[in-house]
Amino acid sequence: MGVYALISRNFNNNKMSGIYREVSNLAPKVKIDSNNNVTESDGCGENENLNRNVKLLKSLNIQKTNQKNYNLSEKSIRVENDNLNSEWNIDSSEFAKSTCNPVRKLIEQMKIEPNPELQMIALSIGDPTVFSDIAKPDSVIKAIQKCIDDKKFDGYTPSYGTEAARQAVARYYSRPDNLIYKFNDIILTNGCSQAIDLCITVLANRGDNIIIPKPGFSIYKTLAGTLGINVKYYSLLEENNWEIDLEELESQIDDRTKAIIVNNPSNPCGSVYSRMHLLDIINLAERYRLPIIADEVYGDMVFPGNEFYYMSELTRNVPILSCNALSKRFILPGWRFGWVAIHDPKNYLARVRAGFNDLTTRILGPNSLVQASVVEILDNTPQSYFDSIMETLATNAEIVYEKLQTLPGIVPRKPSGAMYLMVGLDMKCFPDIPTDVEFVQMLIKEKSVFCLPAKIFECPNYIRIVITMKKEKIIEACNRIEEFVLAHYKPNS
Ligand SMILES: Cc1ncc(COP(=O)(O)O)c(C=O)c1O
Questions:
Q1: Which of helix, strand or coil describes residue 109?
Q2: How confident is the model at residue 82 (pLDDT cuts 50, 70, 90)?
Q3: CA-CA distance, 439 to 355, in Å (whole number)?
Q4: Which one is predicted more confidently, 31 or 310?
Q5: Contact 58, 38 (CB under 8 A)
Q6: What's the pLDDT at 71?
Q7: Other CB atoms closer than 10 Å to residue 145's CB: what's the count?
Q8: Rounded to the nearest whole angstrom, what is the distance from the C-alpha of residue 323 to the centroid of ligand 1?
């Protein structure tokens, strides 16, 4: 009889800790028989992954320790197996088994062995609290502190959130001239991921489809996949500043399409759409009577000279479900506070609103202390805080872009917002490196610089660089990337 265990990554080397934050909640499950042999892995519910994971684990030399843990000593990966009792055959559900995060899948395949001589620089983590030197404003700390001291916010809240917090989000979103939200247009969630999850769940049934960007954030596919909802892709055109290929988007729509997801500003591209382009997308959605799920978690995070528009500002006809959070702009991803803002002036979504209400009874609302503090945070965080974040990011983007564009065989793409920069790789110029995945792997091994292969975002032969690091680190990372590129660049071989 088998038992299930979680593999948690536990790097002994301090330099490595934190690298896996982006995937740390994505521990793969494996089946271990009574002789401690790996017999099965849920992987992503696919045989291919199952076999790969089994091979991977076997190759990692599992050793049993006194604490009944299993050290995958060669790679410093530990299998937590405490107190597992194999007498009851308790399996994980089909729902869990069908959940697959492509980031996890790919990272597992990669051999991550940094150069021991060099301190690791992780440009891979989309967590703006890590490594950046931007201090939180006092008002944020005081706001949560006060809510703790008040002792009034320890109980349950309504499942869609308190009226006060929803009012605060509605105020934050409204524009005096053309966009007014009311508190009952706002549903509070645990981060933007859960907001997106609710939107997909409320709109589509098993066998329906949603249309998502490529390159794009991988969670859309993960969330839809678990629910048996298909994803279809539209391309973002690099040559047009990563604007949406509208023809392709249109060609993907069929009678089972339930929504279009638009992510602006974009992860991973760092692009920001013009008003005109957003209007084109909205017009297309209107023609096909499709709601838009607008992932605007990087809303307002644009570099000087660029302008950000919420999609809801631009239409009174197309229902827009705007998903957002404190995670990025307020640099509070760990607080897990997000929301869906329902923009639906024509009231097409009355039944969907009821569906949202029902679905929130599964989540019972975000943390009540955070809900209480959000009123002060959304109303009174000084603009200077946001400005200093965007200045830092714009400076870092400039440093990385200026340096990398001098290098042969790689083409950085200048971002206009968010916190990422994409770099195209001309793989013909690197004959000893087969793909972006090996490029990333070898860069870690030789130079201890960790970027993400954009294959994760359905965009092979690019890497994504996170630009939230301190300036000195960014410069050091760029210098190491330069050494790496020059060592492997062989254009005519
Ligand atoms: C485009 C995009 N949407 C949503 C999220 C999820 O945000 P949250 O941490 O608030 O769940 C992320 C996080 O990196 C993201 O990049």
A1: helix
A2: low
A3: 45
A4: 310
A5: yes
A6: 30
A7: 13
A8: 9
Cβ(349)–Cβ(192) under 8 Å? no
26, 219, 296: residue to mutate for ligand 1 pocket, most atoms within 8 A of CB: 219
> Residue 478 is inside which H or E element, if any?
helix 471-488
* Both tokens assigned to 224: 């839809």
Total residue count of the chain as it appears in this document: 493
pLDDT band for position 133 (50/70/90)? low
Three-class secondary structure assignment of 4-66: EEEEEECCCCHHHCCHHHHHCCCCCEEEECCCCCEEEECCCCCHHHHHHHHHHHHHCCEEECC
Ligand 1 centroid to residue 196 C-alpha, Å: 9
**Whole-number Å distance between alpha carbons of 37 and 2:** 9
Pairing, β 62-64 against β 70-72: antiparallel
The amino acid sitting at 7 is I
Work out the average pLDDT over 106-116: 79
Structure tokens at 313: 């500002």
Classify 255 as helix, strand or coil. coil
Could you give all domains of the chain from N- to C-terminal order, each with its CATH number? Answer: 3-103 (no CATH), 121-133+384-488 (3.90.1150.10), 138-380 (3.40.640.10)
Query: pLDDT tens, 367-424?
Result: 999 999 999 999 999 999 999 999 999 999 999 999 999 999 999 999 999 999 999 9
Do 296 and 268 touch, CB atoms closer than 8 A?
no
Could you tell me the distance, in angstroms and rounded to a whole number, from the CA of residue 322 to the centre of ligand 1? 13
Instruction: For residue 125, name the pLDDT band (cuts at 50, 70, 90).
Output: confident
If DSSP codes are grouped into helix, strand and coil, which group holds residue 377?
A: helix
338 lines ligand 1 (CB under 6 A): yes
More confident residue, 7 or 437: 437
Pocket test for ligand 1, best of 189, 193, 200, 340 (most atoms within 8 A of CB): 193
336 SS3 class: coil
Which tokens is 43 given? 């992987």
Structure tokens at 320: 């827009």
Q: If 0-12 CB within 10 Å is exposed, 13-18 middle and 19+ buried, where does residue 82 land?
A: exposed
Asked if residue 57 has pLDDT above 70, the reply is no
C-beta of 81 in contact with ligand 1 (< 6 A): no
Rg (CA), the chain: 23
Ligand 1 pocket, residue 295 CB under 6 Å: yes
CA of 194 to the centre of ligand 1 (A): 9
